[in-house]
Amino acid sequence: MSTQVQALYDFTGEPGTTEMSITSGEILTLINTDIGEGWWEGRNSRGETGLFPAAYVRKVTPDESAPTKMAPPAPRYDQAADDWGDHQYSAGDNNYQRAASHDEGWDDDWEDDTYSEIGPGPQQSKQAVNQPLTPLPGMPISDLNHQIDDNSSTFGSSVGTVRKNKFAPSSKVSGESYLLGTLNVEVPDSDKIYIEQEGDAYIWSPIPQPYNVTVASPKKESKFKGIKSFIAYQLTPSFNNIQVSRRYKHFDWLHERLQEKFTLIPIPPLPDKQISGRYDEQLIERRRVQLQEFVDWMCKHPVLSRSEVWQHFLTCTDEKRWKAGKRQAERDNLLGLNYCISLVVPEKALLQSQVDHITEQCHIFMNSMDSSVKSLTNMCIAQTKRFQGPYKSDCQKVGEAFYNLGNALSLDEGTIVSTSKLTSAIKMAGGAYIEIGRMYEEQPKYDFEPLGDKFHLYKGIVGSFPDVLANHKAAVQKKKECERLRAENKMEREQLNEVFRRNNVISYALLAEINHFKSERTVDLNATMQKFLKQQITFYKKVVEKLEVTLQHFEQ
Amino acid sequence: MSTQVQALYDFTGEPGTTEMSITSGEILTLINTDIGEGWWEGRNSRGETGLFPAAYVRKVTPDESAPTKMAPPAPRYDQAADDWGDHQYSAGDNNYQRAASHDEGWDDDWEDDTYSEIGPGPQQSKQAVNQPLTPLPGMPISDLNHQIDDNSSTFGSSVGTVRKNKFAPSSKVSGESYLLGTLNVEVPDSDKIYIEQEGDAYIWSPIPQPYNVTVASPKKESKFKGIKSFIAYQLTPSFNNIQVSRRYKHFDWLHERLQEKFTLIPIPPLPDKQISGRYDEQLIERRRVQLQEFVDWMCKHPVLSRSEVWQHFLTCTDEKRWKAGKRQAERDNLLGLNYCISLVVPEKALLQSQVDHITEQCHIFMNSMDSSVKSLTNMCIAQTKRFQGPYKSDCQKVGEAFYNLGNALSLDEGTIVSTSKLTSAIKMAGGAYIEIGRMYEEQPKYDFEPLGDKFHLYKGIVGSFPDVLANHKAAVQKKKECERLRAENKMEREQLNEVFRRNNVISYALLAEINHFKSERTVDLNATMQKFLKQQITFYKKVVEKLEVTLQHFEQ
After folding, report:
1. What whole-number distance in Å separates Cα of residue B516 and Cα of residue B434?
2. By mean pLDDT, which of A278-287, A403-412, B78-87 is the weakest?
3. N or C terminus: fewer CB in 10 A for chain A?
4. CB–CB of B401 and A375 under 8 A?
5. What's the pLDDT at B6?
6. Out of A397, A416, A555, whose CB is closest to B379?
C-alpha cells in the first residue's frame, strides 16, 4: 500500500519548475522521499505529480480518524515566509514597493516587536501536535495540568526569568505525554542521547565529534535597492567550513525553538537587548561577541550541539530548504519533557531523596549565582563607562595641566638652554597622560567588555535554571499525583511503573545538565578570569612603559 | 661725646633683674652695645642704668630736630607681646586664668583673624620711619605719591594677588626715599648683596655658605595645663643643628616681615589655608610639607636666606631675645625699595628699553604661568580626591563582585575537586582588587599631594610677581616723573642722576630676581616631575605585581 501524507500548510510551487502547489488538508500519495534537501515527491488527487517540502506534510497512519480535526489553523505563513530576509534576490524591481511596505519595521531586528512575527505560528502548531494525543482512560488531564500550573508558579517564579518568549508560559510542563507514558515514538539510534555515570556524577555522553563555529564580523546588507538595510553575521562551522549568513531574527527564531524543545536545559542567551544603537560599529561588534558566546556554548553542549534545528540553522544555505527546515522545526512534537524519549540513561533508578537534595542545593546555589553574575555584569558595564568616561578625562586633565605648564614655560624660553629640554619633557609628559587617557578609553574592549559578555552568558544560563528546576519539580509532582491515582485505583500498576521509569529519565537529564554546567563553568571561568587578568596586567604594564619613556626625557 | 638714643616704645623691665623700664620718647645715654642677643645697656635721665632691647630705641643724630615729632604712636605691645606662645613657661599657676582669657582664639593659628594681632604695629612704624625724611627742595612728594598710586593700581592690580597682609596696599611704592636719593644709610659690607653678570644674564651673587633647614614632624603642644593646645613645627638649620620650635603664627609673622621688606622679591607662600582640620594628622603633615617647601625656597634664595629676620626666626631659642628681634624687625627702616641701598650692582647702566622688554616678557610669562600653576594645583587636588574616592571604591566594587562570585561558587563545592582551586583563586582576585583599592587611597600622598604642594609654592611665587613688576614699574614711573621735574627745572641734574643710578639698581634687582626664579624652577621642576613620574611608575608596577600574583593562583 502506498504511503499517504496530508498537507499541513499551503505551499505554492514555483511556476515552470518541478514544484507542485499543495493546500492544507489535502491528501497526497508519496512517490519518492529520496529527493534530498527536504523535498518529497508526490501525487495529488487530480493525478498531478511534483515536489513539495517534506516538512509541509505529515504521514497519515491507517488507524487515524478524519484528518481535518488535527489540521492546525493555517498560520500566517504569507507573512512569516518573508522573515528570511534574503528574498530580495528574487524580488523584481516592479514589486519592491509591496515588499517594502510589507517589510515595515522588520529590520529592527534588535527590537522586541520582532517576536510577534513568528510568535503565534509555532505556538499553535505545538498545541496541534500535543492535543490529539489520546488521554489514558480515566485520567483527568486537565486536573493534572491545573496542579502543575499551581506548583510551578510558586516554585519557579521567584527568580527573574530571562526567557524572552512572551507566548510560552515559562514553567508549564511541556510535553507531559512523555511522562504519562502515552508518547511512544521510535527514536533512531543516531538521534539517541546517552547519559553516563562518571564517578559520583551523571553526565551527558561527550560530543563524539566536537566542532566549533566562528561568528565573523557582521556585514551591513541591504535590500530593496538600499531602502532597507540590516546586519547579517557570518557563521562558519568547523565541520564543513561553509559560511552561512544569519540575521538576528534568525537567531531569535532558533532561540525560541530551543527554549520550547529543551525545557530541562538552560538555553544560552542571545545578545543583550540593552546594547542599543543599531549601526554603531562597536555595538555591532559587542553583539557579535555575545553571539559567539551563545554559539560557543551551543557547540560545547552534548545535547544542544546535536539538535536538528541547530544543525539546520548552522548549515542551511538555500532559501527553500530553510523554509522547509523551519516548518519542520516548528512542528517538532518532541518538545519539553517529550524530548526525553530520546534519552538513554543508566539502569539504576535514582533515589528521589538524592535527587531532591541535589535540586535543592542547585536551587540555593543558582539563587546566589544569579545575584552574583548580575552584579558582575553590572560591574562590567559600570567599569566600562568609568574607563571611557571619567578615567579617560581625568588622565587627559592631568595631561593638559602638564602640557599647559610646558606651554607657559616656553613663553620664557631662549636665554637658558637647559629650560628647553625641561619644557619639551614636560610637554611630553602632558602628551603621555593624554595618550594614557586614550588607552583607558580603549581598554574596556579588552577586559571589562569581554568579561561582561561572558557574565551575560552566565546570567542567561543561571537565570534559566529556576525554570529548569521548576519543570523538573512539576514532573516530580505529576509522578506523585500518579501515585495518588494508583492508590485510588485510578491507574494501572504497569502504567505507574512507566511513569516512574520516565520520571527517572527526566531526573537523570536534570542531573546531567547540572553537572554539565558545573564542569563547563569550571573550565570556562578559569579561562575567563585568566584572560581578564592578563589584559589588565598588559594594560597597566603599558601605562608603566609609557611613563618610563616619559621619565627618560627629563635630564637625569 | 656719648651716644644718645631715644626710646621708640615703652618697655617694662622684669623686676629684680638687670632690665630697665623705658618710656617711649625718653632719651637715654648708651653705655654698652656689646651685651649681645639684642640687648643694650644705657642710663636714663634719672641716672639709673640697665638693659633694654636695642630694637626699642633709635640713635639720635646730632643734627636731628625735636625727637617728639618722630615718635610713633605706641603700638599695642601689651597685646602683641603675647603672641609668642611660649610664655606659659614663665606664667605661674596663679595667673593662667588671665592669660587664658587673653589668649582666647589665638590658637586658631590657621585662621585669618591671627593677622590682626600684629598688623597695625609694623604698618605704623614703617610710616614713622619714612615720614621724617626731608623732601628735597621744591619737590612735591604728595604729588608723586599720588601719581605712583595711580600707575600702580592700573598696572599691578589686574592679576590676583596672594599677599595676605590686608594692611599693606599691595603695589604702593614702599621705601621711595631710596629712589629719590634721600635715604643715605651706611650698609656694613657684611650686609651687602651683590648682583653679578653671568653670560647675558644678571644674577644674585650665589650664597657663600649654602645651608638647609629641615621642618620636622609637628608636635601637638599644650599650655595652661592642656586647656590650650597648638601645633609646633621643629626646625633644624644645618649650620648649627639647633632645633627651634615654631608655630604657624610665627611663620605668619615672618611672612609679613618678608613681604614688607622685599617688594622686589616674591616671598614663597605659607601653607594653603584651604587645608583645614587642625589636628587631623594627614593635614598637619600636609602643612609640614608645604612649610618645608617654604623653608627650602628661603634657604636657596641668595637674598632671603641671609635676611636678618629669617636668621632670627631660624636661630632664636630665647623668649627675650625673640621679642627683641621681633621689635627690631618691625622697626626695620630698609623696607621696600629702601632695601636696595644694600645692593651692589655692575657698573654698566641698563638700557631702559632692555629692561622694558624683559619686564613685559615676564609679565606675559607670569600671566600664563599663573593660570597654569593654578590649574595644576586644582588638578592635584581633584586627582587626590578621585584616587581616594571613586578610584578606590571602583576597585573595591570590582573586588567585591569577584569575591561574591567566589562565595556563590563555594555553595556548590565538594563534588569536583578542581572547582575548589578556582573558587579560591576567584576569591583571591576579589581580595587583590580590594587591596588595589586601598593602594589607590594611599597613593596621592606619594604623587599628587607632593606635586600639589610644589605647585602651591609656585602658585604663591608666580602670583606675587605681578606685584613685584608693579613695584618696579612704579619706580620707573617715578623716575620719569623726576625727568619731567628736571625738564621743568624743578630738580637738580645731580639729584636726577642719583635717581637714575638708584633706578638702575632697582632694575638690576628685578632682573636678578627674574633670573633666580628661572634657574631655580629649571632645576626644581625637573626634579619635581621626575619624582612624580617615578612614584606613578612605582604605583602602576605594584598594581601589575599584585595582578600577576593573583593570576598565578589560577590553574594554568
Report:
1. 47
2. B78-87
3. N
4. yes
5. 86
6. A397
Reported as a single tens digit per residue, the pLDDT across B490-546 is 999 999 999 999 999 999 999 999 999 999 999 999 999 999 999 999 999 999 999
Q: What is the pLDDT of residue B37?
A: 62
CB A387, CB A443: distance < 8 Å: yes
CA angle B552, B555, B556 (to 5 degrees): 80
Q: How far apart are CA A26 and CA B442, in angstroms?
A: 81
Cβ–Cβ gap A419/B522 under 8 Å: yes
Residues sharing a CB contact under 8 Å with residue B548, sequence separation 6 or more, in sequence order: A537
- Best of A454, A547, A549 to substitute, by most chain B Cβ atoms within 10 angstroms, is A547
Task: For residue B406, give the nearest of A368, A451, A534, A532 by alpha carbon.
Answer: A368
A46 is in an annotated binding site: no
> Does B473 appear as a known binding residue?
no
DSSP B426-460: HHHHHHHHHHHHHHHHHGGGTTHHHHHHHHHHHHH
Residue B114 has pLDDT above 90, yes or no: no
Instruction: Say yes or no: B21 contacts chain A, CB-CB below 8 A.
Output: no
Q: Which three cell numbers stand for residue A92?
A: 523584481
Contacting B residues, span 175-204, partner chain A, CB-CB under 8 Å: 200-201
> Cα(B66)–Cα(A315) distance, rounded to whole angstroms?
118
Nearest CA in chain B to A537: B544
Residue A387 CA, distance from chain mean position: 31
Q: Cβ A379–B397 below 8 Å, yes or no? A: yes
CB atoms A408 and B368 under 8 Å: yes
What is the pTM (predicted TM-score) of this model? 0.72
Q: Which of A362, A407, A533 sits opposite B550 (nearest CB)?
A: A533
**Predicted pLDDT at A67:** 37
Closest A-chain CA to B378: A401
Buried b vs exposed e over B215-237: b needs ≥16 C-beta within 10 Å? beebeeeebeeeebebbbbebeb
Tens digits of residue pLDDT in A24-75: 888 898 888 877 666 788 888 888 888 888 877 888 876 554 333 333 333 3
Q: Which of B386, B404, B420 is nearest to A377 (CA)?
A: B404
pLDDT in tens, A186-199: 888 888 999 999 99
Instruction: Say yes or no for a CB contact (<8 Å) between B534 and A525.
Output: no
Chain B interface includes A240 (CB < 8 A): no
Mean of pLDDT over chain A: 78
The answer to whether the CB atoms of A412 and B362 lie below 8 A apart is yes
Contact B383 A404 (CB under 8 A): no
- Does B555 touch chain A if contact means CB atoms closer than 8 Å? yes
Residues B234-258, mean pLDDT to the nearest whole number: 94
Looking at the predicted structure, is the pLDDT value of residue A149 above 80?
A: no
**A486 carries a ligand binding annotation:** no
Nearest CA in chain A to B538: A544
Is residue B219's pLDDT more than 70?
yes
Mean pLDDT, residues B33-58: 81
ipTM entry: 0.72
Taking CB atoms and an 8 Å cut-off, how many pairs form between chains A and B? 167
Q: How many residues does chain A have?
A: 556
Rounded to an integer, the average pLDDT of A478-506 is 93
**Residue B343 backbone phi and psi in degrees, to 5:** -90, 140
Cβ of A533 and B551 within 8 Å? yes
Q: Which residue of A has its CA nearest to B366?
A: A408
- Which amino acid appears at position A33 of this protein? T
User: CA of A98: how far to CAs of A102, A224, A486, A519, B314, in Å?
Assistant: 6, 10, 61, 52, 95
B408 Cα to chain A: minimum distance (Å): 5
- Pairwise CA distance, residues A310 & A328, whole Å: 12
Mean pLDDT value of segment B274-279 = 50
Which pLDDT does position B291 carry in this prediction? 95
